[in-house]
Amino acid sequence: MNDAAFAPVDAAIRAALDKQGFMKLVGAKVDALAPGRAVMSLERRSEVLQQHGFFHGGVIAFLVDNATTVAAGTLADREAGQGVLTAEYKLNFTSPAKGERIVCEAQVLRPGKRMSVVEAKVFSHEKGQAKLCAVALATIAMVEAPALI
Amino acid sequence: MNDAAFAPVDAAIRAALDKQGFMKLVGAKVDALAPGRAVMSLERRSEVLQQHGFFHGGVIAFLVDNATTVAAGTLADREAGQGVLTAEYKLNFTSPAKGERIVCEAQVLRPGKRMSVVEAKVFSHEKGQAKLCAVALATIAMVEAPALI
Amino acid sequence: MNDAAFAPVDAAIRAALDKQGFMKLVGAKVDALAPGRAVMSLERRSEVLQQHGFFHGGVIAFLVDNATTVAAGTLADREAGQGVLTAEYKLNFTSPAKGERIVCEAQVLRPGKRMSVVEAKVFSHEKGQAKLCAVALATIAMVEAPALI
Amino acid sequence: MNDAAFAPVDAAIRAALDKQGFMKLVGAKVDALAPGRAVMSLERRSEVLQQHGFFHGGVIAFLVDNATTVAAGTLADREAGQGVLTAEYKLNFTSPAKGERIVCEAQVLRPGKRMSVVEAKVFSHEKGQAKLCAVALATIAMVEAPALI
């Protein structure tokens, strides 16, 4: 898919995300979308932390949830009315997220007609260095429904 | 552990949760704590939904993250300075969470000295009926550190 | 589904399992099948152990793989040509499986038209006592294909 | 760790695997060991297949189980008596394993003192081409015990 072909997909996904009350509440941003790929990030502020000053695990899970679903959604057959639905994911925390910003990079490993398998890595950025703080593996259902993302 | 013995554990966990900026932002409540068990809930409001009016998957993951960790934390050896840390979890979404309230019930399946295995079920409550909307399986590390929960 | 209606399903699944070379090699048995449920077991012998005399984790995973898929398969719409395919599972080991026999009980938590969510618990039986040695959560795809199980 | 330092680790792990009855029954081979890495493979034969002639999912899970645990085991502090124990893993099947051989490559993503996070990819080799047939994410406990692997 070339850039021109992807532009309306990009716009449709951003419009759907803009309607997510929780996306606004958390304050996450879409950094990049491409076929099979989504990058989202979140700046540090007290409302997204846990009691020791690290990004809350639930915030990290939210980024993983959205980024993996969106990454699969970039490959949905929109003309055929296909949308995506998060079936499940598994998330390992590898180090405390104590940076100024966290970035979640989701990449489709295997696109499918019925379901897609997506990997996500979350990095904590601190003083110009990125450290892996979580890694995830997700299954996204490709459904015959008005595009969910 | 009898009720009197559990009272200070209950208080310590609630105090730790009160210091979570993200717990406040999301607006989740602790419904019940008991040895090996934690129940948390969240009322419907637009800020915790996705674009189709269902509770956001990331909100459900947040409840699972906190409730499973807390359930393991109720069994930490606090006198020995033991705390808990979320190692990983896996979450399956079983139906759209479209109710007025979601409730996450976490139960330790196998308490451990080094790690505990915890199950969580999330129910969407609608018109007096509870429907399973997610199920999860978590591994919580029991660590030698100032109690994290 | 009553017993008479389930009889041909039971027979079809057992026939499919009889054609699995690996089922024979491992020596696992089907203890029970019912709508949404499958129980399989394996007797202790040196060929299915690891180096410390416990049942090998890979043997436990095999039982989980087969029992969860079969549990979902009991609910497939066979007249419509529906079969099942293992999409993914997650498995926690909760204690060493050192008994004389292991038994895997799989139960569908949420049957679906497109995918089913199945839970499995594996017990190690020793001197008349059953101890939980593993717990799993699986996603089984319900596919339009000559019944795979 | 240089090659000379790794040689006794390599030998100890191969010796432990040689004592696994199930490793022999399945017929898997160790292709490569290195610090943080393990590669295992299995040739096609009828005893390791399911009823449609593909490698059985349980066989793939066995390779994932062993390779991820061994990959973490290469980094255990053997002089301090540290060993490894599989805590949990999650496994997604991405395509039918219909090749002549399957190869599981496990790589430690985050080594830890208490637990390590390991990724595994399983490829089906057919006519000189390798196709991803499964991907997995595992948590391996680093334990104070006579080295388990």
Q: Would you kindly provide a written description of the structure presented here, covering whatever features stand out?
A:
Four copies of one chain form a homotetramer. Chain A is of the alpha+beta class and 149 residues long. Helices cover 26% and strands 42% of the residues of chain A. Chain A contains three helices and six strands. Chain A has a six-stranded antiparallel beta sheet with strand order 1-2-4-5-6-3. In chain A, β1 and β2 form a beta hairpin. Chain A starts with a helix and ends in a 5-residue tail after the last strand. In chain A, 51% of the residues are buried. The interface between A and B is large, with 39 and 39 residues.
Key terms for this structure?
149 residues, homotetramer, alpha+beta
Strand order of the largest sheet of chain A: 1-2-4-5-6-3
Overall 3D geometry of chain A?
globular
Distance between the termini of chain A: 18 Å
Largest sheet of chain A: 6 strands, antiparallel
The percent of residues in helical segments of chain A reads 25-40%
The helix-and-strand class of chain A reads alpha+beta
- SS field, number of helical segments of chain A: 3
